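During the second half of the funding period, the structural biology subgroup turned its attention to how the target accommodates small molecules. The most pressing case was adenosine-5'-diphosphate, which had performed well in the primary screen but for which no bound structure existed. We therefore specified the complex as follows and requested a full 3D prediction, including the ligand pose.
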Amino acid sequence: MNNTVPEIFGSMVFNDAIMRDKLPKDIYRSLKKTIEDGRDLDIAVANVVAIAMKDWAIEKGATHYTHWFQPMTGVTAEKHDSFISPQHDGRVIMEFSGKELIKGEPDASSFPSGGLRATFEARGYTAWDPTSYAFVKDGVLCIPTAFCSYGGEALDKKTPLLRSMETLNEQALRILRLFDNQTVKRVVTTVGPEQEYFLIDRSLYEKRKDLIYCGRTLFGARPPKGQELDDHYFGAIKPRVQAFMKELNEELWKLGIMSKTEHNEVAPAQHEMAPIYDTANIAIDHNQITMEVMKKVAKRHDLVCLLHEKPFGGINGSGKHNNWSMVTDQGVNLLEPGKSPHENAQFLLFITAIIKAVDEYQDLLRLSIASAGNDHRLGAAEAPPAIMSIFLGDDLDAILKSIESGMAYSGHGTSRMDIGVHVLPNIPKDTTDRNRTSPFAFTGNKFEFRSCGSSMSVSGPNTILNTIVAEALRQFADELEEAEDFTDALYDLLRRTIRKHKRIIFNGDGYSRDWEEEAKKRGLLNLPTTVDALPMYLEPKNIELFTTHHILSEIEVRSRYEIELEAYAKMINIEGLTAVDMTKKEILPAVNRYICQLLESAEYKQRLSEGRNGKAYSCGMEDELIALLSDLEDKAFSQVNKLEELLSRLNSLYKEEPDKLKIAAFCRDSIIPAMQELREYIDTMEINTDRKQWPLPSYGELLFSI
Ligand code: ADP
Ligand code: MG
């Protein structure tokens, strides 16, 4: 890189500075206004923007454009169209119209729609989200868009997110007006997703079908050294990884993504990248691009970037900490404890609303992070448990307690702490949460939702967060707008809310068994698997929440429920088939060869013993290993046959069983345990088999070879 970072930063993005530079003043102003007010773009304006965008993109080497969107698969989708337009004389010119910019019509029929397709037309359309800048990636102008069916049903992850940001804005503004803020125009949610990932050598990766097809290892004995020494976390970064990170940063910077922090994570070969936070929809677009760029850059370094939540059994998995807050257009972070009593009362109201929201909608938060991959990680004593709770830290906790009880806050002198009258003591960033066992932690001026899986789009979790907080704020605003004495009413509201919802606050160790017990006593939900969590979509209170805030219609909710159940079952099916394939075609034949080798050795020794008049060579090792491995071979063989049978049952279920929940439950209750049992035999075989004969790279090689 010869250019400085500020020179390359955003060089592939049609950002505000470029727009100001390339667009006529009135067009720029009109576009800006549309973006700020969240209204539809006028076609005349769009035409001018499209031409400027195309000319700029061509300068950056683009020949195609695409409406870049986020279907329910969780990855991004793009269909490339070139700018070429034929002329009468056989030549072409490069064209791009306002209509093409605003709206696209990809065929929706191959994207998951969860029954929406049957109800509505197969066609879908994409619509530009002008708040997220267009960018050029691999010679293609990418226009961030939302994806809907022709009837307007959301078929993607962005549409509900944008709707949830809108409803949160509305409700938060009502609250701010109550605090006499007449000038604030907009509240947006901010998101900073910390992305964890593994890097492994590409040639080793290619030798493992499980990694190729499933993104995780289905077999693998523990290596002699794991993460027990904690020597990887924040350790010196190896040169090959350093080279990867350097290029990753450059690529991300070009795309205007503010990659900020990089370090090694707890597990060997595990790393993290944290960007500087941004407005939620932009941060999420950027995170989707980041995951894609990570994979691409890794390839160039003969590495593979694994984003799966649990690539290796017994080794920490990967998550995505979703840092979340709300900020006004005046730059005020609503979760920043203030300096004046007035600001503090407002801060406490927002905190209390979040406590209420998380308690009342634990089920939705839990299901927002549910996936086959994340099931391996949650509650595995390395990641937050599947039980939702909030960490506030001792100081904030004490303040809330004093409000609830009406007693003096000890850090606050002698008098009763009156919000709106007294200045709150400083609330320093609490460090008692170092162990990071809380799923939802207040970290100074934002909440960190830690249960998100590394490979997932965080659109879902943020849509839920925005919506449930909006609902709590709506109820608060309804009550306070009617109040005669605002301060009294606020005090009373906070007190009641804290009393009612304090059970969700937990500042202790979320990994401990005791917490599971304690949470049960408190009546908190514990939904250990995806199959337990997804049905919560259909709870009447949740459907009501989605529909009253216009986030999802009932049909859309049901379609999401089905899509996610289906995705779960499909993943488990792929894993099962892969396990069968590897066992039958690679592992059992290899072990069998090794047994033959041992038999030959024993036979040879025996022959020698007889020939050398009485001098005997022991075959103890051979005999024992042959017995052990033959036994394991038998067990693995009958287990793999059983698994195959279960998979064919699953196949029939697909055709016969209309209830997708039953299919998913079959995967969880029959297929996963069968795979687990098979793995135990195979991992024991691996430990007892010649390394040269074992057909798969070992955990040791995968984790320590870079
Ligand atoms: P750590 O969690 O490792 O201690 P930080 O607290 O510094 O690290 O920040 C982690 C992430 O939180 C970063 O991506 C950062 O940009 C993001 N973040 C910081 N402030 C906010 C905010 N107000 N809203 C959303 N994300 C934020
Ligand atoms: Mg963090």
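Two results from this model are relevant to the next phase. Residues 194, 321, 448 surround magnesium ion (ligand 2) (CB under 6 Å). The chain is about 50% helix and 10% strand.
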